[in-house]
Structure formats: structure tokens, C-alpha cells
Amino acid sequence: MEVATSISPMRFSLCLFLLLLVPRFNSAIPYRKIYVDPQLQDGSVGGESFSTVQAAIDSVPVDNPNWVVIHIKAGSYREKVVIPREKPYIVLKGKGKKWTEIVWDDHHTVADSPTFTISADNIVVKGITFRNSYNNPVNGNPRKPAAAALVSGDNVYFYRVGFFGVQDTLWDDRGRHFFKNCTIQGAVDFIFGNGQSIYEECTISVLGDAIQPNVAGYITAQGRNNPNEATGFVFKNCRVFGSGSANLGRPWRPYARVLFYGCYFSSVVYPQGWDSWGSVGKEYQLTLGEYDCYGPGADRSQRVSWEHNYSQSEVQSLTDPGFIVTHLNSADSQTAEYRDIYVDSHDNPDGRDDMFTTVQKAIDSIPENNPSWVVVNIKEGVYSEKVTIPKRKPFIAIKGKGYKSTEIVWDDHRNVLQSPTFTILSDNIIVQGISFRNSYNDPEKNNPKAPAAAALVMGDNVQFYQVGFYGVQDTLWDHTGKHFFNNCTIQGAVDFIFGNGQSIYQGCSIEASGFPHGFITAQSRDGPNEPTGFIFKECSVSGTSKVMLGRPWSCHARVLFYGCNFDSNIDPVGWTSWLCGGKESQGKMGEYDCHGPGANQTGRVSWAYKYGEAEVKELTDQSFISASEWLDKPWWLSLP
């Protein structure tokens, strides 16, 4: 089901619109459903279904006061899409830039050509590709300006979005914009305009075969008009690669400003780097340069003499989120304050006091009763260590480079309490893009099976995004506190999600492996009035081992699987009473509206709890974990 959500607006800077990647659903917030599916007829589902994206946008009222999230089904949508100036607070959310595409081929004038146009402020776009197909894929058409997107609104955020064209692909016209993990492809001036924008961890793809052989293209054409304008393009930790060659940019206006910082340059970057275009003789007015980049194309020995040499203070100012944030909501002022520290297992050649070789050392450097958020940025790699966040160290965010790229691993197994590779004892913690593994039971070690936890979570208000937990027995000890797991992977065989947490697992992958037969959950609610329980919402359950959905660690155990996909490895009986034989009626372990080969309930134990619709609505709402009090803070992590 594709849901469009209206959320009371927060007059926001960058800090607040990042939150929309995890919209809050609670009983106090109205919402309505909108569907975009080319297989549906407009209005076929309660008047809220649309076969085109533009029809869905047209349904949003003028001067809309609430957030509306439009979910777009996977597919290729052949249409031009415009968000007009008078329609703010819209989120467009596709199924991923490889799966949801909006395409058109206009090319008459650059102003009329964009496949996608944003004229409104306060817009979020996630998981979609916009393509102008006039020249892309490369074909025999004469090369002309043909934009994939035009962005003229303020406070606009793009996450994992693709922009594909050849000339003038992305018109970053004006306003403050943040591009995260996006892909921009083209050949000539394919990122141009006068926006005030940060491009972070984006992929810049040069399409050299779209122009004449041995002719270099241009990535940027920035249009700052005077030295007092705050505008400019900042590329932070991006990758530049492709075919042919391209200059980093040329000035579209006399005071153009562009910075490439910490970027990887393949050999596609033309040795001279920049072209002065219409600013010959006035190059001193330009601020076009690079800082701390690397790769075959980062050799500056042949760069133009007038390239701007950015100072460290200039770089710090431009790469800070403050470059595109002019104010912070006063209610969030405390949580808006944060600092970065870094972990790289290899070395710290510059002796920086914010760089550490282990994750634990980075955490140890944070003072007790820390009042402001600290982001621990961990480089990709395998870190062999045990990591603990002590009780008196709140407001820590652990951020890796992805759960397949950053891993913390240890093999303790003496007893389950001492075994966890990662332990959280503090409140207010965020973890993103990391895997935690207890390797004691890895098959190649052939060790006797023993409880060996990958993680122990005892703090309150803890959030996990795209995190992996890998073990066999007792993988994830969801001990106590309110927790939110989003798009995580939990792997194990026996009781591999256990404890007495009050937790929602949303869109997670549950993978059973390691034993011939096992149990996913062992929940331990102590009494019928305790608010705890494990809620699995729209998760997938699969694996190589036969597995039951759970067994009670305490007789009042509460577990709900809602809207989940069950593979055929689910044991038909579903549940076992374990230590609670004869007391099965005290617990609440059941499922609702699940699907897949393992979802047939005809073979389930007779005492499996039959959840009602009202109870399911209450438990799957984020108010179950009091999300309104904590899940929308802090703001500076781009949450998927």
C-alpha cells in the first residue's frame, strides 16, 4: 500500500526537512492516501489514486499547509512534472532511482525543456530518476540544451535521486538545496545555475561519448552575479568518473563559485581543470577551485594558473551545513548543535585531535554528560574491537559508510551479558550504516554453539537505520528502552531477537541461518500492563534454516508481525510455548495481514494470539514508542 502522509509543517531549514525521510505517524496527525501507479485509473481507489505523478501533484491544494508524501510505484513514467510555486510541503518518494523513472524529451528551449521543475519551496525528493531522453541515452539527435530538472524553490532536498541528460542536465537555478547520494550525468554544463547548494557523496558521471572526440566537456557552469551573493556549488566527498574528458567547470556569470572538496577524480578530469569562458581577463573575480581531492585526475600540476586556492577556513565555511542553513528552529536549538569526529583504522598522519584509529577511542574522547550531539564518522573497513557507549554518554551518532562497507566484529562468548560486540547503555543514540557481528559462531570456525551477541541495547530513545546485526544465537539483545529499527538486517538462528525492549522494526530483513531449526524472537514482557513488545512492520523473513516466529522468554511476551512477507522457511506451527506451557493465554504472540509462502496460518498453534484491527493500529503507530518525543531529533543525518 502506498501512503501519502500530511504532517503539520515545521518552518524549516535544512535541519528540519531531513526529518521527512522518516515521516511520523501518530493518532494526532491527519493523513490521507494517494497512489501513483500507471496501472490504476485516476480516482479508482477512493478518489486518491492517480496514474501520473502530475495528476497527484495537481490534487494537492494551493497553499497546502501540511506535508503531503506522494509515493510513486516502480516504473517508467513518461510525462513532464511541475511542482508550482503555490504548492509547498510536498515529498516525492519513489522506489529507488533504479526503479522509478520520470522521462521526457523536450529540447526546444532550455527554459521549457526540463522533465521535472520545482518552483515551490520546502520540497523533498527521494529515490527517483529524472531523465531528458532527447540526447540520453546517446543517440543521433543534434546536441541541444535539454534539462532533466530545474530547481528554483528554496529549502529543497534530494536523496538518492538520478539526473540524466547531456547538455544542461541539472539546472540548479536558485535557492538553498542539498543533494545527498545523487547521480548526475551529462557532458556539457550539466550542473549549472545560481543555486546555493551542497552536493554530498554524489556521483558525477561524465558522458564523453556524447560530444566530439578529443573535445573536453564541462561539469559545472555556476552563475553567481556578484561577490556578495551567498550562492555557489559545493561538492563534498563526491566521485567524478565516466568516459572522455571534462573540465571541472567554467563560469556562467562573472563571480562564479565552485568548490570540489575531498572528491575522487578519475582520469576523466581534464588536466587544466577549468575554462574561463566569458571571463577572459577577469579570472580574478572567479572562485573556482578544489581542496584535498585525490585520484588520477587530482594532479594539479597542469591546472590553470588562476584556479582559486581555497584556504582551510574557506573550505570549512563552505562545507559546513551552515552554508545552506540560515536559521534553526528555536525548539531544536539544543539538538541542532553538533560536532564531527572521525574513525579511520589505518592512521592519523596529521595528528588531528578529532581523528581516531578505533571506534572505542572516539567514544572515549566524548565527555560524560555530553550536552550536544557528536557524530562519529567511521570510514569503511573491518574494525576488530568491542565497542561500548557508557550510560553517561548520551547524544552520540555512530555513522558508517554502509552496513556492507563498515563492520565492527568481535568473537566473545563467555556469557551472553559479556559477549556483545556492541553495547549501548546510554539514552539518545543513533546508529546508521554499520554492521555488528559476533564471529564466534561463524561456520568456518567450527566452534561449539554458544550464546554470542552482536549487540546489546539498554538505552532509551535509540534509532538504527540500515544497520546489520549478525550472529547465530542471541544476535540482538533488545534489552530495555524504546527503540526504532528501520531497514535493518538481523541474522541468526536461535532467539536472535530477544529481550524486553519497546521496539518497532520497520522494513527490516530477518534472516534465519546457522541451525537446522530455530526461533526468531524471545520476548520477555513481565506483566500485562508493561508497555513493551516487539513490533515487526512490513518486514521480510527468509533464510536457509527452518524457523519459528518466536517463543516466550517470559509468559506475558508480546510480539506482532504485521504486513510482513514470510518465506517458506517459516515452521507452519509458528510459535512454541517453551517455558510457559499451560500459560499460553497470558502472552500476545501473533501476526496480522502477512503474506508469502510461510504466511498460511492453518497449521499455527491454537493459542497464537488473534490481534484485532484496533490493536494492530495502536501497536504499529509510532506513538507505541512515543516517537513524537524523540524520533524527530536530531536533524543532520540523512535518514533513509
TrEMBL record:
The active site is at residues 189, 495. Residues 46-324, 354-627 form the Pectinesterase catalytic domain. SUPFAM superfamilies: Pectin lyase-like (SSF51126). Keywords: Aspartyl esterase, Cell wall, Cell wall biogenesis/degradation, Glycoprotein, Hydrolase, Secreted, Signal. Its EC number is 3.1.1.11. Gene3D superfamilies: Single-stranded right-handed beta-helix, Pectin lyase-like. Pathway: Glycan metabolism; pectin degradation; 2-dehydro-3-deoxy-D-gluconate from pectin: step 1/5. Its main location: secreted. It is found in: Secreted, Cell wall. GO terms for molecular function: pectinesterase activity. It catalyses: [(1->4)-alpha-D-galacturonosyl methyl ester](n) + n H2O = [(1->4)-alpha-D-galacturonosyl](n) + n methanol + n H(+). Residues 1-28 form the signal peptide. One of its GO terms (biological process) is cell wall modification. Pfam families: Pectinesterase. Belongs to the pectinesterase family. Acts in the modification of cell walls via demethylesterification of cell wall pectin. PANTHER family: ACYL-COA THIOESTER HYDROLASE YBHC-RELATED, PECTINESTERASE 10-RELATED. This is Pectinesterase. It comes from Trapa incisa.
